[in-house]
Amino acid sequence: MKFSIERGTLLKAVGQAQSVVERRNTIPILANVLIEAEGESVSFRATDLDIEVVDKTVAQVERSGATTVSAVTLHEIVRKLPDGALVELTDDGASGRLTVQAGRSNFSLATLPKEDFPVMASSEYGANFSASAVELRRLFDKSKFAISTEETRYYLNGVYMHVATGEDGQVLRCVATDGHRLARIDSDLPEGAETMPGVIVPRKTVGELRKLLDDDEAKIAVSVSETKVRFATPEITLTSKVIDGTFPDYTRVIPQGNTRKLEVDAAEFAKAVDRVATVSSERSRAVKLSLDEDRLVLSVNAPDAGAADEELAVAYGDERLEIGFNAKYLLEIAGQVDRENAVFLFNSSGDPTLMREGTDTSAVYVVMPMRV
Amino acid sequence: MPALCRDCLTTFDDAQRCPSCGSPRVLRHPELFDLTIAHMDCDAFYASVEKRDNPELADKPVIIGGGKRGVVSTACYVARIRGVRSAMPMFQALKLCPDAVVIRPRMSVYAEVSKQIRAMMDALTPVVEPLSLDEAFMDLTGTEKLHGAPPAVMLARLVKRMKDELGVTGSVGLSHNKFLAKVASDLDKPRGFSVIGKAETEAFLHDQPVRLIWGVGAAAQASLDKAGIRTFADLKRWDRRDLEARFGTFGYRLWHLARGQDRRRVSPNAPVKSISKETTFFEDTASTELLDGHIWRLSEQVADRAKAKGKAGRVVVLKLKRADHSLISRRVSLSDPTQIADRIYRTARGLYDQVAGQGPFRLIGVGLSEVVPDEAADITGDLLDPGAGQRAKAERATDAIRKKFGSDAILKGRSLR
After folding, report:
1. Nearest CA in chain B to A247
2. CA–CA min distance A58, chain B (Å)
């Protein structure tokens, strides 16, 4: 195998590969990236046995062939090469080494046989559709903060992507929750997605997927089966197993009868929460919201550290209410609001609170209060 | 030389026998009335309590411990003469001492006696640091004016009161720091009272083995052996930097201990780092139903301890020992700390389900770690488990009922498994 490739192109491909490989693993081949050169293109493939990413890119191939080499080492080398360099990768097959040459730098890296590289079994995808990068970005960016890290509730360690019935018919919906907050994001149902089974996309896959979605114009080919999900651009294909579990019935968690409505400028609100929370050093900082006629007082009282309060002018016309929340949770959901005011709907100080952006119900957040 | 009669508590100036009552149990030491740091350790505590409650056992070898394959928890001095030691497997102990009376520990009784001893110690000084039910450090600095007697006299009075009023004996070590006080209390057991003064510290330690140091077990002993360190004299030859390079922060401590220096303070509120309970089974089991009952009971005990101490833990730990003694340990972080048995149980049960297939097991343990004060405990509800709040309230109500009517006034069916 022998090919030449521009440093920037190589860095992007190897970068994606090295973020998929597990840092600590006991199977040496899994630390490697499989490089295959054929015709006019070279593909870089990496896996952690749950996720597989293949980046196919154009290169000047002199001699086709394939080998595997440490993804992290190759990435480090390419990263340190000067911008604009042309990199030549050569594998003569006999020495068991891959030569990386750029300018006056020469590297010789140990390889492992390509036959040992595990290739993810192909799957029958029941649903294939095309979604815009912008829509997918919104679905996952707005929900991923609520993904649980608790391993005993493994079925919450991802985003539940499924077809649901919204107010105006069927939607593509992403839901994530850790039991303390929940995010439910809807978008128009793409053509061909109707038959899609609901799948829980693991946290790591959500992170890797994000790298495919930077280009606003891009169209992403999505394929879904009961056990796998695939996202593909013309260059990159990301295939992932989905979490084998049942996502809980989130619909009963979303409060329907909350009537006490607070409307507030989300950015002002978030800044004020952040300021008052500064005095508390605890990990779970509780912020108390005291609501009265068009007035909101945010306060923190940490007996050991100090106290703080701040008043905000808001729109609120219901009875007086005092309710406490984890400051981090409030900041996270307020941070999701980008166009209009944040609208909070409360019931009592012990019941879940709902938050949405203006009157838009395509993104809904639920947060559990804290006893204060 | 200052002297003190341990029987009638008279103080006098140097004599072999007490000039007042004639007793030979006389303490004489140049620094006797100047030292203030003490360690009190009860003599074969559990066994003493059993003998007190059943005088027929007085001259018989008594072993406290339990189960077909339990270990010796405490052996009385009669049994110790025959070679029985604590932590020895029961079958081995019974081989050495076939006529021993084996008694299942009655922890609640021992805890009660321990509480009475604690009250007596609290009367001497506010600075009491209990290490377990039957031993504690005390710092009596500055109490002489208050009691009208030096610490040595008050300590002798303490063990006398324990014997007269509670029927249990203890040994006292009196010195100028915790390390030496603990070493001293062990020098002359049972019913001992040993003093290590400042002037004699280095000479005393010189030929002592380093395993004297509390916390030097088999593993530390082995690594010290490798470095050629067996006695304090060996240790003293080492340069401080070399010790630190070789043993890290422990090396730093060793250097100071070699010189009889220990700057740790007697701290009445030693921070609780974790709370855990475990149980060993009579027979190995893989029965989920049986283990579930254990997980619940242990969770409840852990929760009780946490509640009593005003603590809560952010991490729930499950520990299992397989039949071949290999250990499985699983932990999970909660979003906020808990002291609720129901939550500990549900989390531990979730952890158990992950490893259930690896049984049979001989031991199971449940614990809380990353322990913090309970102000911030259990304050965020669970969206996906709306009943959790109700169950926590029920548990608090149960606690209140138990407090009033006794610990078995109300039970969960699960705990009977």
Report:
1. B384
2. 46
pLDDT in tens, chain B (417 residues): 899 999 999 998 888 888 889 899 999 999 999 999 999 999 999 999 999 999 999 899 999 987 556 788 899 999 999 999 887 888 888 899 999 999 988 888 888 899 999 999 999 999 999 888 899 999 999 999 999 999 999 999 999 999 999 999 999 999 999 999 999 999 988 899 999 999 999 999 999 998 888 767 677 788 888 888 889 999 888 888 888 888 877 888 889 999 999 988 888 776 677 899 988 887 889 999 899 999 999 999 999 888 888 889 999 999 998 888 788 889 988 878 899 999 999 999 999 998 888 879 988 999 999 888 887 788 877 888 878 888 888 999 998 888 888 777 888 887 777
Query: What's the CATH code of the domain at B190?
Result: 3.30.70.270
Chain B interface, best mutation among A145, A147, A151, A152, by max B CB count within 10 A: A152
Q: Decide if A28 touches B, using CB distance below 8 A.
A: no
In whole angstroms, what is the distance from residue A231 CA to residue A190 CA?
Answer: 14
Could you read off the pLDDT of A7-16 as tens digits, one per residue?
999 999 999 9
Beta A181-188 vs A169-177: how paired, if at all? Answer: antiparallel
A272/B contact by beta carbon, under 8 A? no
Do A244 and A265 lie in one domain? The reply is no
pTM as predicted: 0.67
**B384–A248: do the CB atoms touch at under 8 Å?**
yes
> CB of A100 within 8 A of CB of A109?
yes
Distance from CA of A144 to the nearest CA of B (A): 17
C-beta atoms of B333 and A182 within 8 A: no
Domain termination site, one of A62, A89, A116: A116
Burial B114-145 (b: 16+ CB within 10 A, else e): beebeebbeebbebbbbeebbbbbbbbeebbe
Domain that holds residue A133: 127-252
CB atoms A180 and B382 under 8 Å = yes
The number of folded domains in chain B is 3
Mean pLDDT of chain A: 91
Q: What is the CATH number of the domain that holds B390?
A: 3.30.1490.100
Catalytic residue from among B129, B135, B300, B395: B135
More confident site: A155 or A168: A155
Which residues of B are annotated binding-site positions? 41, 134
Q: Is B112 a catalytic residue?
A: no
Q: Which residues of chain B neighbour A282 with C-beta distances below 8 Å? A: 376
Name beta bridge partners: B40.
B136, B172
| B3 belongs to a structural domain | no
Query: How far does A270 lie from chain B, in Å, by closest CA?
Result: 20
Q: Domain boundary residue among B174, B199, B224?
A: B199
Residue B284 to chain A, least CA–CA distance (Å):
25
The residues facing B274 across adjacent strands are B369
Which residue ranges of B are tagged as binding site for Mg(2+)? 41, 134
Judged by a CB distance cut-off of 8 A, whether residue A304 touches chain B is no
DSSP track, B146-213: HHTS-HHHHHHHHHHHIIIII---EEEEEESSHHHHHHHHTTT-SS-EEE--TTTHHHHHTTSBGGGS
3-state secondary structure of B89: strand
Which one of B332, B381, B384 has the shortest CB-CB distance to A151?
A: B332
Which residue type occupies A367?
A: V
Tens of pLDDT, residues A27-76: 889 999 999 999 999 999 999 999 999 999 999 999 999 999 999 999 99
Token code pair at residue B274: 């974790």
Same domain, A134 and A248: yes
Q: Are A205 and A159 in contact (CB under 8 A)?
A: no
Please tell me the total count of domains within chain A: 3
Which residues on A lie below 8 Å from B354 (Cβ)?
152
Which residues from B are below 8 Å from A303, CB to CB?
375
